[in-house]
Specification:
By secondary structure, this protein is an alpha/beta fold. The chain has one domain: Glycosidases (TIM Barrel, Alpha-Beta Barrel), CATH 3.20.20. The protein contains 15 helices and 13 strands. The strands form 3 sheets. Strands 1-2-3-4-5-7-10-11 form an 8-stranded parallel barrel, surrounded by 6 helices. Strands 6-8-9 form a 3-stranded mixed beta sheet. Strands 12-13 form a two-stranded antiparallel ribbon. A hairpin with a 4-residue loop joins strand 12 and strand 13. It is globular. The structure holds beta-D-fucopyranose. The site of beta-D-fucopyranose has 12 residues, from loops.
Length: 438
């Protein structure tokens, strides 16, 4: 009886959503005026001077310098330093966002700046984020705040980072303090950014600090991040029950390289389960929305030569690619949205972007992905917004300052911002809620 009532309820909600969509369409818009359009950033990548973080120390470590020199690279290009100086230039950057018609902006609060020593909260950092929120509020831009985007306070990293026994307790305390200060000003909270990518890069591949290569520890850290999310959810909801809390999941389209190969299909299925389905299932009850960071497609093949990678090998791209070799594959976003719709949670595209220094593909990339979002909305899938990665060029982790993801190009010699042509095309969509004619 209850199940039948639920199913009638669901059909009714779907009916209303379709109706709403068609009303919006009739008004000659593709996206309703309350659809969130904007861009995403993260603290370490844009702010600068993240001196009390593990990444800051790692970027300057002797081992890192030697590794980069061995690869013939200039270590200075791989030190975040003042990054985009966004800490001081956020007003200017948000003025651009406003000019581009953005009505939402995702950024992260930096734990290492807020708590540079264990248990000692730095009021100046909280004042800074207060000013950031105020600058967005003044411009009518909705903040979407990430609580952990990959960098740790150095004191916690020294004690073992997410493997330290009290890491989750420490994170909850930090979250409690942030939410206590900013509840009421923030409705959308992202607890953790891409837990699977962090665990993989830092604990399986050994490419990011603390450069571990262990599948057992990768698993432990992933579990801990999911637990950190669950605890953070409780903390946030206790302080602000009406807020919306979720994770920004990294979701690529994972497809078998040889469509008719049974083993490749198995490899793709296994990769999807580990990288996407399980982490989402494990946090569904404590998620008010599902954040989707979608960039590209991975074509995978079963390979006996890859036991350390669960016998999965990623094949080279076959479509046009970004400067980082990622395939441009908008259909994958539509597939992801359809697949996630079965969880009956609102979806938010928390990241989607392309490294494209010459701005050759970015406009087509944005329009292509937004067509897929529009298609999903037309299928009554509850997508609440689209946040492009990124507002401005920034420090791309272990790849340094090379990759250019920004709607705004940044000249790192003088921190000058210049809008790329694609930024204006996206701006037109944000302002009008309409996609350009095909
Ligand atoms: C995502 C990260 C983000 C940025 C983009 C390019 O996986 O969340 O910080 O590095 O990739």
């Amino acid at each position: 009886m209850r199940a039948a009532r639920q199913s009638v309820g669901r059909s009714f909600v779907l009916f209303l959503r379709r109706l709403e969509y068609h009303v919006v369409m009739a008004s000659a818009r593709d996206f309703s005026p309350d659809f969130l359009f904007g861009a995403s950033t993260s603290a370490h990548q844009v702010e600068g001077h993240n001196v009390a973080s593990d990444w800051w120390l790692w970027e300057r470590s002797r081992a890192r310098r030697i590794e980069l020199e061995r690869r013939g690279l200039d270590p200075l290009d791989f030190i975040s330093g003042e990054a985009c100086d966004h800490s001081r230039r956020f007003e200017e950057d948000f003025a651009w966002a406003k000019h581009f018609g953005h009505n939402a902006h995702r950024f992260s609060v930096e734990w290492a700046k807020c708590e540079p020593e264990e248990g000692m909260f730095n009021q100046a950092a909280f004042d800074h984020y207060g000013a950031v929120l105020e600058a967005l509020r003044r411009r009518g831009i909705v903040p979407i705040v990430t609580l952990w985007h990959w960098t740790l306070p150095a004191w916690l990293a020294e004690r073992g980072g997410w493997e330290a026994p009290d890491a989750i307790r420490a994170f909850s305390r930090f979250v409690g303090r942030v939410v206590h200060d900013f509840a009421g000003q923030v409705r959308w909270w992202v607890t953790v950014n891409e837990p699977t990518v962090y665990a993989w890069k830092a604990y399986a591949k050994g490419e990011w600090p603390p450069q571990v290569r262990s599948s057992a520890r990768t698993q432990t850290v992933l579990e801990r991040l999911l637990e950190a999310h669950r605890k953070a959810y409780e903390v946030i909801k206790f302080v602000d029950p009406v807020s919306a809390v979720g994770i920004a999941h990294h979701i690529s389209a994972i497809e078998p390289a040889r469509p008719h190969s049974f083993f490749d299909a198995l490899a793709a299925r296994a990769a999807r389960a580990v990288a996407v389905s399980r982490p989402i299932a494990a946090t569904l009850v404590t998620s008010d929305f599902i954040g989707v960071n979608y960039y590209s497609r991975r074509r995978v093949r079963f390979s006996l030569a890859r036991p350390a990678d669960w016998f999965i090998k990623t094949e080279p791209s076959v479509l046009a690619t970004s400067d980082l070799g990622c395939e441009i594959y908008p259909e994958g976003l539509l597939r992801a949205l359809r697949e996630l719709a079965r969880h009956l949670k609102p979806l938010l595209v928390t990241e989607n972007g392309i490294a494209d220094a010459t701005d050759t593909y970015r406009a087509r990339f944005i329009v292509g992905h937004l067509r897929c979002v529009k298609q999903a909305l037309g299928e009554a899938i509850d997508v609440r917004g689209y946040l492009h990665w990124s507002l401005l060029d920034n420090f791309e982790w272990a790849q340094g300052f090379g990759p250019r993801f920004g709607l705004l190009a940044v000249n790192y010699l003088n921190q000058q911002r210049t809008p790329r042509p694609s930024a204006e095309i996206y701006a037109e969509i944000c302002r009008t809620g309409r996609l350009p004619a095909p």
